[in-house]
C-alpha cells in the first residue's frame, strides 16, 4: 500500500497520523551529515505509549485513515510492531519511514507475518540519496550504502511497495537521472520523493549547500521528458505530476493540494509525546499539548491547530503547481526563482491558464509561493 494521502484545497481528505518513534539520532556515534540532531538532544528518555493516540485515531478516522511511523535511527521493535498490528487490524494503512540500515530481522519477520494476513496494508519509505556509495556518503555514512540498497531489494522481492526519500543538495542534484534509473530499474522502487536540504544542525556544521533552483528544475524536467513510463510513474509525488496533468488536460485547472497543516484529523506526535499540526511545524508556538495529558481531539480543536490552519490558508495561492510549506521552504528567493522556471516552462508548453497569468506575478512578488512537490511525510 503506497502512502497516497488525498488532500484538496489544503484540507486532508484521508485522516493521517504521523508518529515519530524513539529517536536515537542525537546519540549516534556516526550521525548523518545533514541531520538536525540538536532537535533530538533534549528528548526525554521516558518511553511514550502511543497506544492511546492510536486508539483515539482509530475512533476519529472510523478505521479509514493512514498512520506513518517516522523512524529515527533504528527504533523499530516489538512496541512498534504491536502498534502496527493494532492499526491494520482496525482497517488503517501503515507506512514506515526508515534509513533501512538498522532494521532488525525480527522486525522484518513480524512485518512479513502481518502482510500475509493483510496484503498491501504496509509500505516502506527508505532514505537513499545517491546511486553510488560516494554520492550517498555526501550526507550519510558511505559504508551503509550497500546495506540500505539490500534492504530495499529485499522488501521489493516480498511484494512490498517501497518509496525512497532523496534529499537534494548541491553535491547530488546532477546525479538525479542516474539515481532515478538505479532506484527504479535496479532496486524496484515505485516512488521517489525529492526533499530540499534543510540548512540546520549537521548540514550547517558540515557546510552543506542547497541545490540551485535552476539545476534542480532542469534535472527533474529532463528526467520527466526523457524517462520511461516506470520512471515517470515514480515521479508522481513531484511537481512534474502537476505539469503532466496540465499537459493532458490544458483547459482544466489543477490546483496544488495546498498546505494541510491544522486540517481535520491530521496530526504529528513526536517521540516525546508532543502533538503538532504537522511534522514540518515543530516550533514551540505550534505545540498543542502532550499525548500523555491531552487527547488528539482536544489538540486538534486547540489554538495551536487553529493558528496553523490560519497560516496555511493565508499562504494558499491560486496556482496550478505551486504553493508553500511554511515549515520547509529553504529560501523565499530560491522558491520564487524555482516557481518562475515552472511558469516559464508552462508558457512554452502553451498550457498556462489565464488564472495563472493573472495571479502568479503578484503572488510571486509577495514571496508566498514555493514548489508544491511532495510533502515531508
Summarize the structure.
This protein has 14 helices and twelve strands.
Give short descriptive properties of this protein:
single chain, about 375 residues, alpha/beta, 8-stranded mixed β-sheet, two-stranded antiparallel sheet, 14 helices, about 40% helix
Structure description:
The chain is 39% helix and 13% strand. An eight-stranded mixed sheet has the order 8-7-6-5-4-3-9-10. Strands 1-2 form a two-stranded antiparallel sheet. Strands 11-12 form a two-stranded antiparallel sheet. The protein contains 14 helices and twelve strands. The model is unreliable at 37-44, 318-323, 352-356 and 358-374 (pLDDT under 50). α2 runs parallel beside α3 (105-117) and α8 (213-226) packs parallel to α13. The longest helix is centred in the C-terminal third of the chain and has 17 residues, at 332-348. By secondary structure, the chain is of the alpha/beta class.
Fold topology:
Blueprint: E1 7-8, E2 11-12, E3 16-20, H1 51-61, E4 66-70, H2 78-89, E5 93-98, H3 105-117, E6 122-127, H4 133-136, H5 145-157, E7 162-168, H6 176-187, E8 191-196, H7 202-205, H8 213-226, H9 229-234, H10 239-248, E9 266-269, E10 275-276, H11 296-300, H12 303-314, E11 322-323, H13 332-348, H14 354-366, E12 370-371
Parallel strand pairs: 3-4, 3-9, 4-5, 5-6, 6-7, 7-8
Antiparallel strand pairs: 1-2, 9-10, 11-12
